[in-house]
Write a structure and sequence with these properties.
Layout lengths: L3 E4 L2 E4 H13 L5 H12 L10 H13 L14 H4 L13 E2 L9 E4 L5 H13 L12 E6 L5 E9 L5 H7 L3 H7 L3 E8 L4 E2 L3 H10 L2 H9 L5 E7 L6 H5 L3 E5 L17 E7 L4 H5 L24
Helix pairs in contact: 2-3
Length: 313
């Protein structure tokens, strides 16, 4: 391989590919988990809390194999992701049409979804059945929110994950050059999924939910990962949505993507054009997102996430 490419938020060079091939040749038997852990140690690839980014490394290796750059050893056991990613049945939920005024649903309760909980199964089921992009496992730092009305009925869910690796309009707005972006990317989070189920038709609900989450996400992120986030971003497919709820919630439209993917070095891959939105979480968000390395928490910046988002109904 000549040149470099971005995979799982890392710039992977030909030398990196050769390193992985060397690890595969030296240790053909240990299996994929040992390989990903060793790769993290060689790269010192850790999160802000100092833990090896093992899951990110596994995903990176799978992507490299699919692209034909490496060949991984056979799996020792069936992947549990196949079960995690199946379409979860909403047997525990009998949807009833929810219509009317927002005041009839308030106060809304917003809760962080804990892994393995009943809320997690409901969250996955809602996105799998109701969101046009579906839902797969999220790699890297993320928060999942489930929103219920005053009668405990689920009316919305939202997923925030790793920020997009590159975005010209966003980077220009923040004053990011390449080094500053790579250093501070983990201080920004991407709203990769936002869902109001089809049976919920309540004016102003989506923008109200976005406002509730925006007021608490910095604290929630600090509690879970030991560092805050200073702004939110999302990407709205303009062929499907108008981004009305984001604008109503005071998100800033910064521009639009170029209809390319991050690995489109040859300008041949066409993707949906998406409007770029950003929501600052503090008055000094630019200063915080351009902070020098000495003020960052220990660890390396988080990897990029998918640049997919959706506007609410």
């Amino acid at each position: 391989m000549t040149g470099s490419m971005v995979v799982q938020g890392r710039e992977v060079s030909g030398a990196d590919i050769e390193l992985i091939r060397g690890l595969l040749a030296e240790h053909p038997a240990p299996g994929r988990t040992r390989l990903s852990e060793e790769l993290c140690r060689r790269w010192d690839w850790r999160n802000a809390q100092g833990r090896l980014k093992d899951m990110a490394a596994r995903t990176l290796l799978l992507k490299l194999e699919r692209a034909g750059h490496i060949r991984l050893p056979p799996r020792r056991r069936p992947s549990c992701n196949g079960f995690r990613n199946c379409r979860v049945a909403l047997a525990s939920l009998t949807p009833e049409a929810i219509r009317g005024a927002l005041r009839d649903l308030r106060p809304l309760s917003v809760s962080v979804v804990a892994p393995g909980s009943d809320d997690a199964r409901l969250f996955h089921g809602l996105l799998a059945h109701e969101h046009y992009l579906g839902h797969r496992n999220t790699v890297g730092e993320n928060l999942r929110y489930l929103v219920r009305d005053r009668h405990s009925r689920p009316v919305a869910c939202a997923l925030f994950g790793s920020a997009a690796w590159k975005c010209a309009d966003r980077d220009a707005f923040l004053g990011w050059d390449r080094a500053t972006r790579e250093r501070n990317l983990q201080r920004l989070t991407n709203n990769t999924r936002f869902l109001i189920p089809g049976w919920v038709q309540v004016p102003h609900l989506a923008s109200h939910v976005l406002g509730l989450i925006a007021r608490r996400i910095r604290c929630d992120w600090q509690t879970k990962y030991g560092h805050p986030v200073h702004a939110l971003e999302t990407f709205v497919d303009r062929s499907r949505f108008k981004g009305t709820c984001y604008r109503a919630a005071n998100w800033l439209r910064l521009g639009a993507t170029r209809g390319r993917t991050r690995n489109d070095r040859a300008h041949r891959i066409r993707a949906a054009v998406k409007d770029v939105y950003l929501y600052p979480l503090s008055p000094d968000f630019r200063r915080e997102l351009c902070a020098p390395a000495c003020s960052l928490p220990a660890g390396v910046p988080g990897q990029a996430g998918r640049t997919e988002g959706r506007a609410g109904r």
